[in-house]
Structure formats: structure tokens, C-alpha cells
Amino acid sequence: MALSSALTLPGRSFLYFLAYLGQLAALMRELTIALRSGVWRLRLVAEQIVAIGYGSQAVVIVTGAFTGAVFTFQSYAKFKDFGMETSVGAVVSVALCRELGPVLAGLMVAGRVGAAMAADIGTMKVTEQVDALRVMGVHPVDYLVLPRFLAMMVSMPFLVAESVSFGLIASYMVTSYGYDMPSSWYLTHLVDHTNMDDLKIGMIKGFVFGMLITLIACHQGLKAENGAVGVGAGTTRAVVVSSLVLLIVNFFLSIALNYLYPLGTL
Questions:
Q1: Stated pTM of the model
Q2: For a designed S-S bond to 186, which of 89, 165, 194, 205 qualifies (C-beta 3.0 to 4.6 A apart)?
Q3: What is the pLDDT of residues 183-208, one digit of tens each?
């Protein structure tokens, strides 16, 4: 019996995974229909932009700044052994724009905003407010998911840009005031080896990550059941699943985008 269960576990997990992808695809289809309807409820979108974008600035800025600072600290210590300390600015800038900025901003937003989305919609689901919307002729996806989706599409690229910007500012301060590197060296290498392609990759990743976070969090909220326990479980799943999906998708997205925007030489 134990052997049989062990053999069927991979297949069962794969079927659950396919079913979950199908549910996300169905939600995306309903979102597409809602987008085409033209009824976007801009007041709700504006409220969500404030909650998502403005409300997430603190965690994104702190994460980006200290990531840039510690990455600069470690890079400078090793690059100095090879006499390449002037290249620290270029390496940190490219790493923040292409990888660290969008990924860490996405993880922070998934933890803060994704949990809030799942909890809000899940609470409405278990208290039958979602059913009340249907009775009044309002589709829950149009009213609950679409404003959050549009707000995330607007907010996420800006949050990524903030993460990258404050990471670079912190990196500049570490090299200029911590290691007494001439600021002209740092800035010259940063400008020479960072181009629009690096920024495009960060913005594209932020846009994609925002879509994934919204889809996963809202799906967990709409599927919540069994009262407060179900809402708590859905909120936890929303954060865990969205964080893992972001890391996995980032790998394949990096490969695809590096073909479109190759990394230059230092």
C-alpha cells in the first residue's frame, strides 16, 4: 500500500498542477473579457494604485537600498583582489536592473499586496458578498479582480524602478564614502555599461510579475471557503505560490530576454 501511494503521488501532483493552471487560465480569460468590455471602474483602479503602489514604496525602497549596499560591499571586496574595483558600479547596475531589482520587488509585493488581495477577496467570498454581487448583476471578476489587475500593471514597473534607483544610490554611497573610490570612476563605468536594454528587462519582468501576483492572489481569494480558516490558508498559499512562481518564471524569462537584449561586455 505504501509503495502504491508513493508511485501514484507524482501523477496525482501533476494532475493537481494541470488543474491549477486551468483555473488560472480560466480566470485570465474572464479578465480578458472584462478588459474588452471597457467598464474599468477607474475610481476603484485609482484606489488600488494608492494601496498597491504608494503603500508598497517603503518595503521596496528599503529592500532595494540594502540589497544594493550589501552587493556592492561584497563585490568590491572581491574585485579589489583583481584590481577591478572600478567595475563595481557597472556590475551592480546591470545586476539590479536585470535581476535583483525586479525579483526582490516582486517578492516584497507578493508578500504584502498578494496577501492583502487574497485576504480581502477571500473574506468577501466566505461572507457571501461575492454571491451578493452576482445577484445584483455584477460579475465578481469585473468588480474585484480587474481594478486590482490594472492597478498592479501601473504600479509594478514604478516599484521596480524605485528598487533599482535606491539600490544604485546606496551602492554609490558605499563606494564613494565607505571605500573612498572617486565618484567619477563609479559613475563613468555605470553610465558606460548600463543601457536601455537593461532597463527594459527590469520593466518587462516587473510587468509580468505583477500579472502573476494578481492572478494567483485573486484566484486564491475567489476559491476560499470554510470561514476564517479557509481565508488564512488561501492567504498563505497566495504568498507561497506567487513567490515560487516568480522565481521559476524569472529563470525562463531571463533566458528569453537575454536573447532579445544580450548582455554587453564590461
A1: 0.89
A2: 89
A3: 777 788 788 888 888 889 999 999 99
Give the separation between CA 157 and CA 20, rounded to whole angstroms: 27
Query: Residue 38 falls within a domain, yes or no?
Result: no
The answer to whether the CB of 124 falls within 8 A of the CB of 224 is no
Residue 194 located in a structural domain: yes
User: Does residue 108 surpass a pLDDT of 90?
Assistant: yes
Rounded CA separation 189/91 (Å) = 9
What is the tally of structural domains in the chain? 1
Task: Compute the average pLDDT of residues 128-136.
Answer: 88
